[in-house]
Amino acid sequence: MVDMTAETKGSPQAFSLKAILPTLLAIATGMFLVILDGTIMNVAIPKLVHQFNTDLKHIQWVITGYTLALSAVIPLAGWFSDRFSAKRAFLWSIVMFVCGSVLCSFAQTSDQLILFRIIQGLGGGMVAPIGIAMTFQLAPPDKRGSVMGIMGLPMLLAPILGPVLSGWIIEYVNWQWIFLINLPVGVLAFFLNKKFLPSASPSKKMKLDIKGAILAPIAFGSLVFAVHEGGTNGWSSSLTVTFLAIGVAALFAFILVELGHKQPLLELRAFRSKDFTLGIILAWVNMMALFGSILLFPLFLQQVKGLSPLDAGLLVIPQAILSSIGINVGGRLFDKFGIRPIAFVGIISTACSLFAMTHISVDTSTTFIVSCLAFLGLGQGLTMMQINAHVLKSAPKELVSRVTPITTSAQQIVVSFAITIITAYLSSQLSILPHTLDGMADAFSQTFYIPFGLALLGLVLSFFIRKPQNR
What predicted TM-score, i.e. pTM, was given to this entire model? Predict the structure, then answer.
């Protein structure tokens, strides 16, 4: 991937955030488009079950198929960026994602919708890793925290605003607009990126790691499928065990191939850096706590407090506001003090919020829940992009385009694993506790201990994280 920091290397004083703001806006629009679609579907699932006259188990493949497609294509992001240029790869990914979105809106059966969602996923899978890599290279090292903080806004706001938008569309428009809304946003993202992304000459010397390109989709796709299947039909089912074994075997073979390849698909040698390894583990734990808890909040508000999808979605607005504040403040503090104090304070805020939610009941006020959501947003705003920036700074600069697919590929697996474990545990608690509102509230309060435990693990890891050495 082209080094876009060449002009700023010699004179950091010449760096101007205003000068790169159009480029940041363009990349953020593309990333927001894809990330929003990943969360907007959660509220729509009951509507799709009714629309296509099917059951929940079948319609869940609308999400599973999309996730599998993402996991399969993400490892190829680095090679496509180097071989065809980051700008071209980013633009074509947006085009394919928008085409898949339009096809989804015309689906007449659930099977058609699943197929078109896979096309969506194949297009959207490379947007995040390429976008993060380009953003990281836009600024000098001492300004990367602030720049990555700005880019983190779509990554934080999209999962929060997705349920609000989805609830409004389902209640007042129709389900097709969940996908059609991607068309105008996608067109805007395409033209912004076409105009403002810096052009670069593709590297024709980059040869595709064919063995890695075959093994990576098998490994990541099988593991994600096994996690989803385990949550649906049990971890001892033959299908779960089979795909788990295939995924582990393919992953082991993929690691051996990548470590021995001169131009690997994923640069796994970055794990030789202790700073990188510890940082990426902290990032994964943090994401598991975030997305696991984000799933539980709207479910509690709808099933126990009796709110509509739109009303439940509107209550996350304070979380979005404090996330925005946290991510901008955290970026500046990261540039000044490094990752350790920021991660510690942010994870403390997250852990306190989740601990408070372990004590909820039917009588818990909506104000209390919204306050917990707000502190969760503040904590994640302070940590999420700052930890990602730390991970990228811990890797050799020339390998950034090959490192971001590692983080996003594994993120799909660990987040899927966390959500599956949390939903399975919630279901088991709902089945053994009394089928009353009090029983449902107790089930949710017990389930919140899982993301709280993950937050505590992240807090312990934050003590050992340090400022990466110059490479």
Answer: 0.74
